[in-house]
């Protein structure tokens, strides 16, 4: 099942600070709900999480790498994940630009979901995905000292 989400949020940090944070897996991975660990090697990274989203419960592993880094304004992350009886292949693009005294982060997430997550149906999956997105954005703000 194909999915696509996009949005933006603002923080009080400079674009350079935000970009540095978002492109450092050891820092940004802690923004994910259920974060357990992160490993960085050979230009890629693996994040282990404990999922707890409705029927999607259990350990998950996401492996990804950065592509098309244009410091300090935009980047693309491509990866895949498995866990909780589900699979995910994805591309995440984000851009950081000055806004007021801080930065605006605009993002687009496109993916292909399989397994249990796909079998739940579009509305249920959409609701769970939006909750996860909001939790991640809150985590990013928290890790940047905004919350």
Biggest sheet features: 7 strands, antiparallel
Please identify the top-level CATH class.
Answer: Alpha Beta
Number of domains: 1
CATH H-level homologous superfamily name: START domain
Can you walk me through this structure?
The chain has helices spanning 15-22, 25-28, 116-119, 122-143; strands at residues 2-11, 35-41, 44-53, 56-70, 74-83, 86-99, 102-115. The N and C termini lie far apart (34 Å). The longest helix is centred in the last third of the chain and has 22 residues, at 122-143. It is α+β, with helices and mostly antiparallel strands. Strands 1-7-6-5-4-3-2 form a 7-stranded antiparallel β-sheet. A hairpin with a 3-residue loop joins β4 (56-70) and β5. It is built from 4 helices and 7 strands. The chain has a single domain (2-144), classed as START domain (Alpha-D-Glucose-1,6-Bisphosphate, Chain A, domain 4), CATH 3.30.530.20. It holds the Pfam family COXG. InterPro entries: CO_DH_gsu (IPR010419), START-like_dom_sf (IPR023393). It comes from Aeropyrum pernix (strain ATCC 700893 / DSM 11879 / JCM 9820 / NBRC 100138 / K1).
């Amino acid at each position: 099942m194909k999915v696509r989400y996009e949005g933006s949020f603002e923080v009080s940090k400079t674009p350079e600070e935000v970009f540095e944070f978002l492109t450092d897996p050891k820092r940004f991975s802690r923004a994910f709900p259920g974060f357990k660990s992160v490993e960085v090697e050979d230009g890629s990274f693996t994040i282990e999480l404990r999922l707890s989203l409705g029927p999607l419960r259990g350990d998950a592993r996401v492996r990804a790498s950065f592509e098309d880094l244009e410091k300090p304004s935009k980047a693309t992350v491509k990866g895949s994940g498995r866990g909780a009886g589900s699979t995910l292949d994805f591309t995440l693009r984000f851009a950081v630009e000055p806004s007021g005294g801080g930065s605006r982060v605009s993002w687009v997430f496109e993916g292909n979901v399989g397994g249990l997550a796909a079998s739940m149906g579009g509305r249920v999956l959409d609701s769970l995905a939006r909750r996860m997105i909001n939790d991640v954005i809150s985590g990013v703000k928290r890790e940047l000292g905004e919350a």
